[in-house]
Structures are given as structure tokens and as C-alpha cells.
Amino acid sequence: MMRMGVDLGGTKIELVALSDEGNELFRKRVTTPRDYQGTLAAVANLVKEAEATLGEQGTVGVGIPGVVSPYSGLVKNANSTWINGHPLDVDLGELLQREVRVANDANCFAVSESVDGAAAGVAINGKVHGGGNGIGGEWGHNPLPWMTKEEFNTTRCFCGNPDCIETFISGTGFVRDFNAALTAAGTVRAAAKSGADIMLLVDEGDVIAVAAFDRYMDRLARSLAHVINMLDPDAIVLGGGMSNVAAIYPRLPALLAHYVVGRECHTPVVQNLYGCSSGVRGAAWLWEK
Fold it and tell me: Which regions of the chain are under pLDDT 50?
């Protein structure tokens, strides 16, 4: 059975079609329209093009940067704000004349890495754990654990709350922190544009960059220890741009042990196998074998 997964992002929509064994059969990416009806049409057209190219019909799963409320059936908490308040799965299903399954994109990532990737994230037995409110896995919208007084009320998340974990441990958060340190030090040089820029400076022994990475590692360890203390997962798979920083992985074990209850931790923290493709593959795996 062919499975199609769609990664519905704020700037691009990507579709991948997988065989029953997980082999990629078709892939295409288009720009995301900034309105709801245009987004529906773009997804439907990708599905129809894939099926016409491959000569067969398949199931459709969609990963979104938000969740579908189990109470109202409407999308909520999406930073692609034009899909909020709409029954995306129902409307797409009507366009495609079949059931469409929709899940949070981070949970799709976890499913992909659980089914045939590096390991499991917030996925149980290879399935999305959405939770009673549909927000299972949104640990990045908890406050940064064990905050110092210097960290309180220093960031504001798109969700409306201050000091969310993802505002500190994302690549964007890493860059923000480094550039703020540059400004505070009165250093006259160009601001960093990416985490990769900063890591080049770390390799050169730049004092401000090394200190920023030390802060990043401590915040990452606190954040992951928070998850381990609640779920004690079999493994954690890192995604996003910062997951490509090789220096993270050898340093994490000792830092995690400092914050995990009992002061010992052997939870594997590994890099994802499929990178930016994990989300779209996980959307395809929303349909069980």
C-alpha cells in the first residue's frame, strides 16, 4: 500500500510517497500559499500529481506546525496562523474523497524515527501520542527548567508565553543569545546569522562563542532532563538545525546526569537518521501497516 505524507510548513509544503517497505517513490515541494483555501488546494494538487505519476492511489497523512483539537476538531496553536480555526483533516478529506489523518509535525518526526529511523521520541510503539488535549509532545512550550535569575522573562514565544524551552534551545535561540552577548561585551563585529556561524567561532576558541555554547549545552541538558524525569524514554532523537552539531552528543551524558533524578542517566540521545525528511516521512506513517 502506498502512503503519502505531507509536511505543511509556513514557507513550503512537501509531499513524499512511500512504499509499504518505506522506500521513497515520489517527492515534490511547493511554496506554501498564505491563505487557507490556497493551502488546501496546494496539498490536494500534490496528492493528485503523485498519484497520477505513480498510477495508484494511496493514504494521506499531514504533519502541521500545530495540533487538531480533539474537542472542536479545529486546528489550534499553529504558527501558520491561517490554518487555525479550520477543520483541516475534514476539508482535505472532502477535496480528496478519502480520510486524511493530521498530526503535529514534531510528533510526525518522532514516528518516523521510531518506525524506521534512529530511535523513538514522543512516540509509543511507533504511533503518535497526541494526548487527551491533542498537545502530547509540546514540551518545548514549558518554561526552561531550573532557570537562573538572568534567564527569567528574557524571551517571548509565538504561543504568547515567556521563556519557553524552544526559545532557548532552538538554533534561533542560540543565535539570539550569542548576539546579545556580543552586544553586551561591546564587541564590534558582525552578528551571527546561524548556529553554524557560531560553531565555527567555537572551533577557533572565540571566548564569547565558547561561553554561548556552554550556556546552550546547559540549557539543552536541563530541558532534556525535564523530559527524562517525566517519561524516562528509551531514547531521544534530536531534530532541527542544531541536531547537526556533532559537539553536542559527547558532552550531553555528563550534563544530563547532573539534572536527572538520582543523578545518573544512560538515556541515549542520538542524531536523527532522516534529517529534514523525518517529518514528512512520519506523516506518511500515520497510516499503520
Answer: 118-120
